[in-house]
Write a structure and sequence with these properties.
The structure is a homodimer. By secondary structure, chain A is an alpha/beta fold. Helix content of chain A is about 60%, strand content about 5%. Chain A has helices at about 35-45, 60-70, 75, 80-110, 115-120, 125-130, 145-155, 165-185, 200-220, 230-240, 250-270, 275-295, 325-355, 365-380, 390-395, 405-420, 430-440, 445-455, 455-470, 475-495, 540-555, 580-595, 605-620, 630-645; strands at about 10-15, 15-20, 140, 385-390, 500-505, 510-515, 520, 525-530, 565-570, 600, 625-630. In chain A, the strands form three sheets. In chain A, strands 5, 6, 7, 8, 9, 10 and 11 form a seven-stranded mixed sheet that branches. In chain A, helix 4 packs across helix 17 (about 430-440), helix 9 (about 200-220) packs antiparallel against helix 20 (about 475-495) and helix 11 (about 250-270) packs parallel to helix 17. The radius of gyration of chain A is 32 Å and the shape is elongated. Chain A starts with 10 loop residues before the first strand and ends with a helix. At the A-B interface, strand 2, helix 1, helix 9, helix 18 and helix 19 of A face strand 2, helix 1, helix 9, helix 19 and helix 20 of B. Chains A, B: One of its GO terms (cellular component) is membrane. Chains A, B: GO terms for molecular function: secondary active sulfate transmembrane transporter activity. Chains A, B: It is a multi-pass membrane protein. Chains A, B: Keywords: Membrane, Transmembrane, Transmembrane helix, Transport.
């Protein structure tokens, strides 16, 4: 292998293009292992640099900033004004009108007494108002977490016969959800919720909405003996095998109110000035239906009602937490799953509305707030709560300015708990079912699914699997399968990285994918490949096979003018290599030599360059002319040698 | 935002450099979803293009090639010559001299009767000779798979009291290992074994070698009541709590033979011409120690011997496969783990020696061969077998030319089974222990571990965790933890991708990492960032936070001459985006506008470009001048605008 003299001149002409001098490939300035680890830890766990604002501030200011960081209420309360309060009051009353009927309904969805839903709309919002940094989130129970908690706990306790046990298990699961959420925030592992992709969530939400709606058929049809299972098949069996239990009065009432709610929702979405219609409809339905039942004594005609509810505020429940080893496994698992799911909804809602208003949400900080709120909740007769997406949207549209709207809502709920509970005795269950269906129907987002289909077929597949898994297998397993597939897809992208053959765009120094650019032409004598992934243990075998195939194809090609003599490997898109990757590069040097090829590396990034240098100390596989800063410089430095061989 | 006229001239001067015309960014030629899926499937599962050789061949030739593909023996047998046979005969006899003592020893390691080890060195090598494509692999039982099978099956059956059940479970686990291996090959999922990185395996092997050696203390010290557990702590307790059971005769004999074997191994490795010394030592030790026991009646002095072994070949065992549901779970799990581990050793050995001789091994094809060999083995009283790395090295060095050396070895084992079994009655167990220790000691590869430490600290950590996990927790769990960490590391690389700030190398069109290249200088008015990973749901939050921080840092920088006005995002190293990634890019356009910045994308790769175009149809977020082929062209097209704003 003859090596060329490297050009030392300032600029040399190739064709019509001025070629600058050949530049040296450099490694980044040396850093110790500890420094590097420190930087990597910072990027992994403190990528948002939460302590930036403290830099260079005097001590007292640091203390104030620290207090504001831990308790965001101190950020807005000192400058709170009456005009802000007016906005918050309206927003707070608006979300309270939703929170009361939804709270009762979602608690029933979780197989819990209805009053627990009101308790959960009272204490957690107050805690969040002190600790949370979102101005839009409306805190309280949400449909999906309620569904999951209800279905997971039902595996170990029967909510109808073991009511007290079931309730205590729910508090305990909430406690673990809170512990888990707060730990994620404190350990700065918030990125774990990023592993639920948009496509996964879309499919999951739609599936869960259908499961939730199907569960409501029990209330809507007035069936007394309903299956305990969640998935489509047993529910539909229950519905059609119990036609004798259908109550026509209930069906009529249910369908009427469902239609009312859906029409109000539709009108409210189409006409922003009729927004209050969709917001007020649930409370109006509750009041109207309660009046109907009361006036017509409908409870005697087969319409089941909530029944007597005890007045009064949350009682302490820390002594009811159930750490018995018989249930511990299920309770921890339930806490984990509901914790992650409710966190995902809360953080996503917070981020969405924050970006609409142009402020930032610190994900890890929010997790601590949500976690603490659930821990406090579990000790005060609440089950798992988070920021509800739909109610936060209402809060945002109703003009909330600060977390004060949550306080207003909580106080409204408190008044309800203290004085208005007897009024709910005649509220029919069928209306609660209709409210739930009208609320969750918005989770089925067909237009977005269609956009995903247009953009990325694999993402759509993940979405579909998530959806089908939830409705046919189970809520938890459907989600687990979808997350598994998403992660497998990412691993597959690393395992089977793109390797691209580059060609020169004539008359330039630019080298681009020959498949993508028709103008990019093969350079005689050179095979130029770019690897588009970290080179590590999962893909060295593949990259090796793929490159070998490329060389052999190139060698066996007929009618070619010049044999390839150089393999140029563009490492611009290889962010990292591990030891397997380095061994592969060392071996590749040898195996290309067997084909009579000289291997040239172009533009290794910082870390890759460092490791190449270190490996070169051990194996000295880098020749004098085997590293270039650009493809153009590598081709330029060796092209005259290719021309020689042709003569 | 004022847009510049795009230069239409052939070349425009910037500084001393000729700037070519601005080039259009193109998408790859359109392909249907089915075509794309097909291509992706091909790259994922048929990356080695196994059917390439059939292309354009006449039908008869295709049939012959197909037969040779399925049964590689037809490739070499027709042209087999006497001179090749001479080499294979020597190699075959050499590996037989190792296979016989090791077979007996490894069977004992798996808590199986010693004769099973010999059976396993007879049938599987014959099957492999017909189906396998390696010329170097020496087939038979191996230490690590034996250890794992022994320890996993011991959880459900006691090998001392339930000998027959244990044996039948071992056959069944072997059957499942074979089924699993063959399925991986047929389904072309061979890349699964790539998930065991070099570093993981190194730590695992070293840990397993120590566990295996510690187990041999039972034989070496002559202890009768030894713990059933594997990890370091209980074994050392057993050793030191049972000092009364130590037999000095056994200890003396054990240490002498171990020293002999280690010296022979050392000399054989240092002096290639004394290679036979290390190869012959185990058989010599067996013969010598058997003679000593026989002559001095040492079995009466506390030295335990193998005892009577039945002469005769393998009996059928398909009727002994145990599919009882009590054991099925454990047996399937054992088959899975031993199947993967033995496959990893076999394929890695095959690839290593193939690359030394310059031929290719088809991983998926080999998996089918190994799988079938184990299925046949499980029906003929064999337990799990694969290509042993150490014996393959001996086979290679002894000059084997084809798989015929395995046939020679198998026939030698057959003769032993038929006629020489009575001779083993007096072989002392202590020598078998010494042979095992001398064989596995080579698995502790400190120099490679040191190289890994020098090259990549995180890889070293994985190696260390794997090692410590195996010796302190358990063989399977240590491996599982190490694999988990390796995969988590890859996910973390995607979750926290490198984002690099680029600067211009003065006097060129080259833009490089400003941290790596001191000559790379900031371009006034531009913030140029390169993302080095696929943009997907796991990292959009991070990338968003990181870019925001960068913009804010840049904005708040003091003493700067020119405000940044452009954010250039170099997408050259972004191989793919998913729907979350596309949403992020769409949102980024909006959020940069809030900072008064214009967002420019540079060089999106094929798939990314396609998706940008499709997203643009939905959201039309790409402006007229927001896509360039190179950073230089983007900077050039907008730099005069930056200069204007300064005036």
């Amino acid at each position: 292998m003859i090596d060329m003299e490297r050009s030392e001149e300032g600029a040399v002409e190739i064709g019509a293009i001025m070629e600058p001098a050949v530049h040296k490939v450099e490694a980044p300035p040396p850093q110790s292992t500890v420094e590097k680890m420190g930087l990597r830890m910072k990027e992994t766990f403190f990528s948002d640099d939460p302590f930036r604002r403290f830099k260079g501030q005097p001590l007292l200011r640091k203390l104030v900033l620290g207090l504001q960081y831990l308790f965001p209420i101190f950020e807005w309360l000192p400058s709170y004004s009456f005009s802000l309060f007016k906005s918050d009051l309206i927003a707070g009353l608006t979300i309270a009108s939703l929170a009361i009927p939804q709270g009762i309904s979602y608690a029933k969805l979780a197989n819990l007494p209805p009053i627990i839903g009101l308790y959960t709309s009272f204490v957690p919002p107050l805690v969040y108002a002190v600790l949370g940094s979102s101005k839009d989130l409306a805190i309280g129970p949400v449909s999906i977490a309620s569904l999951i908690m209800g279905s997971m706990l039902r595996e170990v306790a029967n909510p109808n016969t073991e009511t007290a046990l079931f309730l205590h298990l729910a508090f305990t699961a909430t406690f673990f959800a809170g512990i888990f959420q707060a730990s994620l925030g404190i350990l700065r592992l918030g990125f774990i919720i990023d592993f639920l992709s948009k496509a996964t969530l879309l499919g999951f939400m739609a599936g869960a909405a259908i499961i939730v709606s199907l569960q409501q058929l029990k209330n809507l049809l007035g069936i007394v003996h309903f299956t305990q299972k969640m998935s489509v098949v047993p529910v539909m069996e229950s519905v059609f095998h119990k036609t004798d239990e259908w109550s026509w009065q209930t069906v009529v009432m249910g369908i009427s109110f469902l239609a009312l709610l859906l029409v109000a929702r539709h009108v409210g979405m189409r006409r922003p000035n009729l927004f209050w219609l969709s917001v007020g409809a649930p409370l109006a339905s509750v009041i109207l239906s309660t009046l109907i039942v009361f006036l017509f004594k409908a409870q005697k005609h087969g319409i089941s009602t909530i029944g007597h509810l005890k007045s009064g505020l949350n009682s302490p429940s820390w002594n009811k937490l159930q750490f018995d080893s018989t249930y511990l496994g299920t309770v921890v698992k339930t806490g984990l799953v509901t914790g992650i799911i409710s966190l995902t909804e809360g953080i996503a809602s917070g981020r969405t509305f924050a970006s609409l208003r142009g402020y930032q949400i610190d994900g890890n900080k929010e997790m601590m707030a949500v976690g603490l709120m659930n821990i406090v909740g579990s000790c005060t007769s609440c089950y798992v709560s988070t920021g509800s997406f739909s109610r936060s949207a209402v809060n945002h549209n109703a003009g909330s300015k600060t977390a004060m709207s949550n306080i207003v809502m909580a106080l409204t709920v408190m008044i309800t708990l203290l004085f208005l509970m007897p009024l709910f005795a005649y509220t029919p269950n069928v209306v609660l079912g209709a409210i739930i269906i009208a609320a969750v129907i918005g989770l089925i987002d067909v237009p977005t699914a269609y956009q995903i289909w247009k953009l990325d077929k694999v993402d759509f597949l993940v979405c579909l699997i998530s959806f089908l898994g939830v409705i046919f297998i189970s809520v938890q397993n459907g989600l687990a399968i979808a997350v598994g597939i998403s992660i497998f897809r990412i691993l597959l992208q690393t395992t089977r990285p793109k390797i691209i053959a580059l060609g020169n765009i004539l008359g330039t120094n630019i080298y681009r994918d020959m498949h993508q650019y028709k103008d990019a032409k093969r350079v005689p004598g050179f095979l130029i490949l770019a690897i588009e992934a970290p080179i590590n243990f999962t893909n060295t075998t593949y990259i090796n096979e793929r490159i070998t195939r490329w060389i052999e194809d190139e060698m066996s090609m007929e009618n070619k003018e010049i044999n390839i003599q150089y393999l140029i490997l563009d490492l611009s898109a290889v962010p990292t290599v591990d030891t397997s990757g380095i061994s592969f590069l060392v071996d590749l040097k040898k195996s290309t030599e067997k084909y009579g090829l000289q291997l040239i590396f172009v533009n290794p990034m910082g870390e890759v360059m460092e490791k190449l240098q270190r490996a070169n100390k051990l194996h000295s596989f880098l020749g004098v002319h085997s590293l270039y800063l650009t493809i153009a410089e590598a081709v330029f430095s060796h092209s005259s040698f290719v021309t020689q061989s042709k003569l």
